[in-house]
Design goal:
CATH superfamily: dinb family like domain
Shape: elongated
Distance between the termini: 42 Å
CATH class: Mainly Alpha
CATH topology: Four Helix Bundle (Hemerythrin (Met), subunit A)
CATH architecture: Up-down Bundle
Number of helices: 5
Largest sheet: none
Number of domains: 1
Strand content: under 5%
Helix content: 55-70%
Length: about 160
């Protein structure tokens, strides 16, 4: 896939997320319909929290020859209810701002830099191109989960 198509997708995700999360009835956004799994609200707020970490990775790709990244494990390194308590409107606004910054940082990369390799203990190969594509897929995974949580009938409602 061409990098510009990935960047276009990354630019569009915040608007899709905003429309999607507000299509979930307000009283159902924080329901944890599956024991031990996030609510729609938590998925949306996580995207802002993760984006901050991803922006730092993009900065490091710009400034370091071969960055070494530490894995991010949400929920294992933070309070289990942190995302549930997060302000949804603030999280969405933060996500939108950080995503603009992320796309702008990626836009500063020279063509050859898109294949610059980093070390990441979870992946055999990690480049800005793979990171950007991974982030886009991450967006749609969480947005799918949001839609699934409130549309699927066979999940137990509280």
């Amino acid at each position: 896939m061409e990098k510009n198509k990935i960047l276009d997708g990354l630019r569009g995700s915040p608007a899709i997320l905003r429309e999607l999360i507000f299509s979930v009835p307000e009283g159902r956004r924080k329901e944890r319909r599956i024991p031990g799994k996030w609510s729609a609200h938590e998925h949306a707020c996580h995207m802002a929290k993760a984006q901050a970490m991803l922006n730092e990775r993009a900065r490091r790709f710009l400034t370091e020859e071969k960055p070494v990244f530490v894995p991010y494990f949400p929920g294992k390194t933070t309070d289990a209810d942190e995302l549930l308590r997060a302000d949804l409107h603030q999280s969405l606004n933060t996500f939108e701002k950080l995503r603009v910054d992320f796309v702008n940082l990626l836009g500063q990369l020279k063509d050859a830099d898109w294949q610059k390799r980093a070390e990441h203990p979870e992946y055999d190969n990690y480049t800005p191109y793979l990171m950007a594509r991974h982030v886009l897929l991450h967006d749609f995974t969480h947005m799918y989960r949001i839609e699934e949580l409130w549309l699927t009938r066979d999940l137990p409602h509280k």
